[in-house]
Amino acid sequence: MDGPGPKEVLVAIRTVDGRMEQVIVDSRAIENDEIDIGSPIDKSDDRTLVELPRESMSGIWRVWVPVSETSP
After folding, report:
1. In whole angstroms, what is the distance from residue 45 CA to residue 32 CA?
2. Residue 18: inside a domain, yes or no?
3. Which H, E and C letters describe 30-44, residue by residue?
4. I need a labelling partner for 50 at 20 to 30 A (CA). Which of 1, 38, 59, 64 fits?
5. pTM to 2 decimals?
6. How many domains does the chain contain in total?
7. Helices and strands per DSSP (H, E), number in the chain
8. pLDDT tens per residue, range 29-64
């Protein structure tokens, strides 16, 4: 979805609890329908704690995502 700026897009990130966190990113940060989030902050069983590239629409910076949603 188009974002507020000319090269920004709104992306949805699925969290482990099934919610979708929306975050605005520069369209150039998306490659193969993925965004780079850097190194995981923490891992626990089947989930990974990641820091978003920007604050989400709900005001958070970190989310737990399924391990299957992260690259090795």
Report:
1. 26
2. yes
3. EECCEECCCCCCEEE
4. 1
5. 0.78
6. 1
7. 0, 7
8. 888 888 877 778 999 889 999 999 889 999 999 999
